[in-house]
Amino acid sequence: MAGKVRYACDIEKSVLINNFEKRGWIGASADEDWNFYWSSVQTTRNIFSIESGYRLQDDQVINHFPNHYELTRKDLMVKNLKRYRKDLEKEGNPVSERDEEGRYKYLDFIPVTFLLPADYNLFVEEFRKNPNSTWIMKPTGKARGIGIFLINKLSQLKKWSRDSKTNSFAAPSGKDAYVISRYIDNPLLIGGKKFDLRLYVLVTSYRPLKCYMYRLGFCRFCTVKYTSSTSELDNMFIHLTNVSIQKHGDDYNSVHGGKWTIKNMRLFLEGTRGKEVTDKLFDDINWLTVHSLKAVSGVMANDRHCFECYGYDIIIDNNLKPWLIEVNASPSLTSTTAADRIMKYNLINDSLNIVMPNGELPDVRWNKVPPKEALGNFDLLYDEDLAQADILERDAKSRLGLSVGSRGRETKSSITGRPPPTTWK
């Protein structure tokens, strides 16, 4: 080995430090020379700011893309996905096809969403089409369930805005931009309780797109049984799955932490709903993940020194349709249970094995395609280079009357009811 890796870290979590020390890496401060930096989003912003004048070297790697917020800020994620769908429509791409009611057949995986205060009039127009619907308000730049509330009357929104005397909507302050989304009021329930999925997706490059899905995600359950009753709209123990909220509930169980592995959930669904529809659900989740990343790949600063491990939050409705709720740039590494600690330790370990092969000094000129045995619990979700090669090979072989498989992704290749496989790429 040419030399020991020097690491810097803003976040004092044992699942990180233990992984670095296991590899024999040496700790360094942010002001010293470092090869690997697990930083906060603010530190990444500072490093890449024009004012800092900092220039990363070929042997330096950091854990966020400079403008990750294009995906991880709720308002920007929605804006980029809407633009992506329109761009595909302009191209005449079959993926952007709509049904008789004007809904996207293959890209309808985010709830109807508006930005406030900017889209207030559009929201009111939509609300009046279905005045009995429930909507969920979220501040664009906050996490852990902070500032979230549900409404089912326009008067509630006007009261909140502090500006009910006028017709114009004004947020409490310029900083407090919100998104308002149609609430998924028919969630899939297990044991009568609402839950969401936390999935981990590792991105090592946006152009070309290379991403990996972690097998060991989990479900986060509410502690109180679900009801759509309007009298319970204020009860966040029924509606919000965030552990930071649920752990304060009287019924919170600190042994399992209100969590269930994806593997167990999949077995449960196969047993209760059938294997075919369960397989389709997970294929749909892979599909929405790839297209959410494609939606930002054009605007993301694709710096070769960067990688990112995102926390995807997905809700499944009672029809087994997955909905993308949000994407987190810094998914929590706090462990609530022993199983949680082991899972997160392994997540960091497997991520490092992909972005820092063999724990050796990094070289960003490396092509970032690790061997399959280095993936650990990650599966290759999508590799744009392989996908493009597949298209060329498919075209050539189809002219010769031969069949060809798909290498662009290693997950299930059957995409039920979708356009031909090449549109996946």
Shape: globular
Class based on secondary structure composition and strand pairing = alpha+beta
What is the strand content?
15-25%
Q: Evaluate the radius of gyration.
A: 22 Å
Helix and strand element order: EHEEHEHHEHEEHEEEEEHHEHHEEHEH
Helix content: 25-40%
Main beta sheet strand tally, sense and closure: 8 strands, antiparallel
Describe the structure in your own words.
This protein has twelve helices and 16 strands. By secondary structure, it is α+β, with helices and mostly antiparallel strands. Strands 9, 10, 11, 12, 13, 14, 15 and 16 form an eight-stranded antiparallel β-sheet that branches. The protein has a four-stranded parallel β-sheet with strand order 2-1-3-4, covered by helices on one side. It is globular. The two termini are 38 Å apart.
Short description:
With 425 residues, this protein is of the alpha+beta class.
How would you describe this structure in keywords?
single chain; 425 residues; 16 strands; 4-stranded parallel β-sheet; globular; 8-stranded antiparallel β-sheet; 19% strand; alpha+beta; disordered C terminus
Set down the secondary structure blueprint.
Layout: E1 6-9, H1 14-22, E2 26-27, E3 36-38, H2 41-48, E4 61-62, H3 69-72, H4 74-91, E5 113-116, H5 120-129, E6 135-139, E7 149-151, H6 154-161, E8 178-182, E9 189-190, E10 193-206, E11 209-214, E12 218-221, H7 236-239, H8 243-246, E13 259-261, H9 262-272, H10 275-297, E14 308-316, E15 322-328, H11 338-355, E16 378-383, H12 384-399
Parallel strand pairs: 1-2, 1-3, 3-4
Antiparallel strand pairs: 5-8, 6-7, 6-8, 9-10, 10-11, 10-12, 10-14, 11-16, 12-13, 14-15
